[in-house]
Amino acid sequence: MIIGIPKEIKKNEYRVACNPDGVKEITSKGHTVLVERGAGIGSGYSDEDYINSGAILKDTPREVYEEAELIYKVKEIFPQEFQYLREDHIVFTYIHSNAYAEQTDALLEKKVTGIAYEDVDDKDGEFPLLKPMSIIAGKGGFLAALHFMQRVHGGNGILLSRIDGVRTPEITIIGAGNSGVAAAELAAALGNKVTILDINIDKLEKARKELPSNVELLISNRANLETCLKRTDVLINCILWPKWRKDHLVDRDMLKMMKPGAMIVDVACDDEGAIQTTHSTSHDDPVYEVDGVTHYCVDNIPSAFSQTATTTLCNVTVPYVLKIAEKGVKQALIDDKYLRRGLTTYKGLLTLEETGRKQNRPWVTPEKALGME
Ligand SMILES: NC(=O)c1ccc[n+]([C@@H]2O[C@H](COP(=O)([O-])OP(=O)(O)OC[C@H]3O[C@@H](n4cnc5c(N)ncnc54)[C@H](O)[C@@H]3O)[C@@H](O)[C@H]2O)c1
User: Fold this and answer.
1) How far is the CA of 191 from the centre of ligand 1 (A)?
2) Mutational pocket test of ligand 1: of 174, 240, 265, the residue with most ligand atoms within 8 Å of the beta carbon
3) Is 180 helix (H, G, I), strand (E, B) or coil?
4) How far is the C-alpha of 224 from the C-alpha of 218, rounded, in Å?
5) What DSSP state is assigned to residue 99?
């Protein structure tokens, strides 16, 4: 199969779908990989690195799309890329068809096979192609707190680490999932007093096995949350708030409970979600203040750690690319029910129920679209 890797065009997106090691893995199995010139620069990989891994460089996105069968990307397809899409294309990337209706239209009109990273799941019901990004976002979220607490970066000058003779800083994390546990791991490693709150006792028990003993694990209820808010230096929110909820876990009034100069890092960064005062920010302008509390709500934290993020994403996506390349996309989808869950569009049919309901469009199950039922 011919696999094409275009350069990402989203602002502040420095990742690329595959690193040179991943390309080598694919080309060593006899497939062709086309890489747009400069696609790896943002992640620290030169064109030469890709050539040495067996890739063929292309000067323009048009050439990559024209010659490739599988378009291997990180972010969604942008309007300026719609012109390149064709019926026999397979697009494998974070699609988020729910959020980008115009892109959904293009994938349907051009009859592209779209497989979304974010919807591929596994036998435990987890999302293996999202997990590595959540882990980086959790760690990056804590590192942002370490940075923005510094006086020279506008903070109150607290070093988020245990120092003899000084009160140990306190970090509260809401959500003991992938990002929450990752943030806790770093925060605890520097000797901070870390508390994680979760509504799911199983998640707390799992976190207990993964984290050192200086991490306190509490059930998430109002009393525990308020106790933590009063004493914490940094609150890290790692839960996605259901879209239908109109209330908030931390509303604006509750910011008054927090210490002056405390900080909120909202990894989930839902606008007015779990944290009422959250609005998503970018790496260009990452922080703002509400009632004396600094907020950091960057919605693509992994891009700041582009080389690590590219590598970890490529590690989990390459096996699927190989499966699709070796079996053909239809057979790969039929054989692997977890990959099939990621099928978003197929031969002009929408196959993602959530997007069908949200955008009021007709949809069919992936099984029906593939002729399995
Ligand atoms: N900012 C970024 O760049 C970035 C990058 C990757 C992921 N994310 C986002 O980070 C968020 C978290 O991702 P994840 O993979 O860690 O999620 P996850 O599903 O692994 O973990 C969420 C945890 O929150 C817990 N939870 C749910 N409701 C709760 C409540 N009311 N109180 C306390 N705990 C509660 C769940 O039990 C679960 O353990 C997602 O919204 C994801 O989209 C952001």
Assistant:
1) 24
2) 240
3) helix
4) 7
5) T
The per-residue pLDDT for range 325-361, each reduced to its tens digit, is: 999 999 999 999 999 999 999 999 999 999 999 889 9
> Is any atom of ligand 1 closer than 6 Å to the C-beta of 137?
yes
**Alpha-carbon dihedral sign for residues 13, 19, 25, 28:** positive
Query: Ligand 1 mean position to 110 CA, how many Å?
Result: 34
Decide whether any atom of ligand 1 lies within 6 Å of the 313 Cβ. Answer: no
Q: Is the CB of 297 under 6 A from ligand 1?
A: no
Residue nearest ligand 1's atom 10 by CA: 268
- What are residue 171's phi and psi, to 5 degrees? -125, 130
Residue 240 CA: which ligand 1 atom is closest?
41
State the Rg of the chain over Cα: 22
Mean pLDDT of the residues in the chain: 96
Tell me if 2-119+306-369 shares its fold with 131-299. Answer: yes
Q: DSSP labels for 221-243?
A: -HHHHHHHHHH-SEEEE--PPPT
Domain residues of the chain, as ranges? 2-119+306-369, 131-299
Question: For a pocket test of ligand 1, which of 131, 143, 198 has the largest count of ligand atoms closer than 8 A to its C-beta?
Answer: 198
Q: Could you tell me the distance, in angstroms and rounded to a whole number, from the CA of residue 339 to the centre of ligand 1?
A: 22
Report pLDDT digits (tens) over 228-253: 999 999 999 999 888 788 899 999 99
CATH number of 131-299: 3.40.50.720
Domain 2-119+306-369 has CATH 3.40.50.720: yes
pLDDT digits (tens, 9 = 90+) for 68-81: 999 999 999 999 99
